[in-house]
Amino acid sequence: MTAANRIIRVIKGRQPKVVVIGGGTGLPVILKSLREQNADATAIVTVADDGGSSGVIRDYINVVPPGDIRNVLVALSDLPQLTLDIFQYRFKSHDAFFSGHAIGNLIIAALSEMESGIFDAVQRLSEMMEVDGHVYPAANVALSLNARFTDGTQLVGESEISAARKQIEHVWVTKTADDGEGQPTAMPEVIESIMAADVVVLGPGSLFTSILPNLMIENLGQAVTQTKAEVIYICNIMTQKGETERFTDADHVRILNEHLQQNFVDTVLVNTGRVPENYLDHQKYDEILWPVEHDFKGLRQLGCRVISDNFLELRNHGVFHNGQKVVQEIMNLAFQVNTAKRGE
């Protein structure tokens, strides 16, 4: 019997509650493996993206950027693969009007107008797509990501911030002009899921543009620091241009703690697998630089438990997390928390 099968047998009937917070391509990888492990999975997805098809749609109709939400819905859906392939289909460049747009993005945008908001739209679409779990936008309105750099300058917009290639000091989120004034807030369901979780997982994803935009929503960040759940950070394997150049794994956690003004990360998952020299296609993955350096002493000084292993998956000349191995560790931690709660 494999380790993965042992986890399924032990956890079945209890369904540990796992909340994953982030955005980008790493989130669906973890969610797919959590679904295979019979977890009660909730994805809280960033709404501060301003690039690609998502950004174009947002510019035209002021809707929350749908791309990350689309990919998460697919990762948790029980629909046949052909239906999911249609939902994911992206029009080719010679289709002038629809060029570059994914069909799923257009559907999410339409439902957002029909339901008067992205949150209800995603809940309706989750039912239609037979989603196994929960998908929650981090906020019910589109947010703008703001950054202050160490040289004192500031920029607005995820793509602008990354392209600046400056050292980021602090990020925060604001509502767009069309959505009124006041601080953005997360919906009650988002907060309830975090407070009821066994584990809350941050990442994997871009530190400043996929993870922190969620935590900078005030009531969401407060929930992550106040929950009794184990807070797990999946450290990126590679550093990223314009975000984490020259960062160690301890630097990642330090930035998270500084933004929420306390040491709140309980466990860090760190990859120790070696990326072969000259394997990465830097033209295809042009935002990726080099492997994150390890600083285990620094992590321990920040109060973190460190779980290190070869979490590496190499494919298509890209570097990714092995979802199954990462989720095995998450499920082990979830079981420990679940057991401790029942023993209180």
From TrEMBL:
One GO MF term attached to the UniProt entry? LPPG:FO 2-phospho-L-lactate transferase activity
Keyword Membrane listed: no
Q: By its UniProt entry, which InterPro entries does this protein fall under?
A: CofD (IPR002882), CofD-like_dom_sf (IPR038136), Gluconeogen_factor (IPR010119), Heat_shock_70_CS (IPR018181)
Q: Does the keyword Nucleotide-binding apply?
A: no
The entry's keywords: Cytoplasm
Q: Which domain of life is it from?
A: Bacteria
Q: Name one GO cellular component term.
A: cytoplasm
Question: Which compartments is it annotated to reside in?
Answer: Cytoplasm
Name the Gene Ontology biological process terms: regulation of cell shape
Q: Name one Pfam family in it.
A: CofD
Relate the protein's function as given in its record: Required for morphogenesis under gluconeogenic growth conditions.
User: What does the sequence similarity comment in the record state about its family?
Assistant: Belongs to the gluconeogenesis factor family. Belongs to the heat shock protein 70 family.
What's the protein called, per UniProt? Putative gluconeogenesis factor
Q: Which organism is it from?
A: Latilactobacillus fuchuensis
Per the record, the gene is mgfK
